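mind reviewing these tokens:
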Amino acid sequence: MQRLRELWSQLSPNGRRGVVGGGIGVLALALVGAIVVAGGGSDEAAPTTTTSTSTTIATTTTAVATTTTEPATGPVAPLTGLRVQDGSLLERPALAIKIDNLDVPNETAVPQLGLLRADVVFEEIVEGNITRLVAVFHSQQPGRVGPVRSARTTDVQLLPQLGRPLLGWSGGNGGVVGAVRSSPSIIDAGWDAAPGSYARAGPHRAPHNLYANADELWAKAPGGTPPPPALFQYRTPGQAPPDGARQALGVDLSWGGGAAVAPVSWRWDENIRAWVRNQRGRFHIDQDGKAITAKNVVVLVTEYGRSAADSRSPEAQTVGSGELFVYTNGRVIHGRWDRPDINKPATLVDDNGAPVLLSPGQTWVELPRPASTTTIFR
């Protein structure tokens, strides 16, 4: 009992909410000991850290997705760094789909469908400090994906780094619709452009029940539309981590105040060698009952302004620079991101100025405000 009290005292606020709200499975992840780094302080200074030893994370009882075996030969997918057997998939453009992530007890879009088949997932803040997801598909056939929701002006700034992607979305206010459709870098594959590829279905009630047949949406791309460029650099098997990398149990992310806010945690699972996602104090699962996991969690600490299309809507300033936390291979690397050109991805460098290398596989890119990132150290 004394040990439990000690572990409780070491948990972050997100972790404590997880223990109370998530039951035994979350308790196994949450009682990990040690804290903390608060992200998003001075752009120049390294984060202040406090560490302590911790118990090993217990094995969870939540099902995890089966790891896909990478073929020994074949072209490398630019958005995952993994080889694929069907090289024709890599000749097409990226497909980005806006995914609903409202997660409150009486009205929810969780669990979603298709996130495990995305190459990259971006998480951005919208009204009420709710988050919405941009799932980017390229190297797999995703099938049915959803629930699909509306775009934001954040997406107009975010998506051009993917070359000329298609966007699956359910619409938006007049300002957002005009911004999306006037962007030379976005191909409209939304509800209005391809109504036959969308349908409403369970398990959630409207408006959280619109799904896209994502495999059909690639037909909206004009011939010759190029594939996306690589967003990240990847380490080779057995490559040693950089000197500044520190072993980490995970990260807690907060989005701001409000009754509909769903805090997020990621925790390293040594058994599957991946980060397991926790949202609103419980495992985040898909509609197949599998836990949402990622090989990499890239946190780009981001300033938000007000959207010109709606003053109530926050707009992530993803063209610019800021503090960086990269969670990969059971470690955290601190540094900076820099994206001066809307048509190019951000460069990621550590505190020594060296490029940050990710593990091949799916990556989640988190876009929290400053002072909203807490690293949980071993």
The first strand starts at residue 37 and ends at 38.
